[in-house]
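Target chain:
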Amino acid sequence: MSAQPRKIAICNQKGGVGKTATTLGLASALADAGRHTLVVDMDPQCNATKGLGVSVDSEMRTTYDLMTAMAEGRAADAIVATEWDKVDLIPAHQTLANIESDGANDLIFRLDVAFEGVDLSPYSAVLFDCPPSLGKILFAVLCACDGVIAVTEPTIDSVDGVENLRETIQNVKKRPNPRLELDKIVLSRKRRTGEHIFRENELRDTYGHIVARTGIPELAARQDAHSSRTPIHLFTGGKATALRVAYSDLLQELTFEKTGVAV
């Protein structure tokens, strides 16, 4: 089997911080660079699925199916093409929310097993868009992934939120998944306010080089592109250029190859 990309979780337990925007922004940047991405939508709100222009029908397998039973290699049967060039998807359905009440002992390992033996070599990156919680779905993602990108706004809650996620990552790393690493903390929805500048400095003082040099500005073009199901690198409205540059620059800071060579 050819070289496989690292699987990356994009997460934070707080909603509305730009996780899906970061997932799709990176997928757009990778496509712009001629690279292929697999997006795995693990959020019952299905925002990544909708943003990629995919409508789930009864014939499609979704991430809910990957979480309902232990089945090796099942992820391969759930991959679908999207409206975006060079971006494939394992879609989500709102029924995924039911997984949080599943009491099965093997629950958090099912996603990892679903990817067992699946050839992901056609992709430069495999990005898991995670739900805004520290529940069972996120634990399952952390058991299946190699790295984590923590997305946060530079607000009063950001340091506590990132620290809670970091502790969760350390706990998962100790036992079920020793390969898991916190790759980067990405500052999203940045504005030039005193509060944001102060909190950004606080995060950089606390976490140092783990905080990405590139931050993602808060611009209306982000939501406009998402609403139109358009990659930000192809969107022409508003101040989309600033977002295109930000996501492309962020891409250069990240490592997706298991060899440790940056994309």
Q: What stands out?
A: The two ends are 20 Å apart (CA to CA).
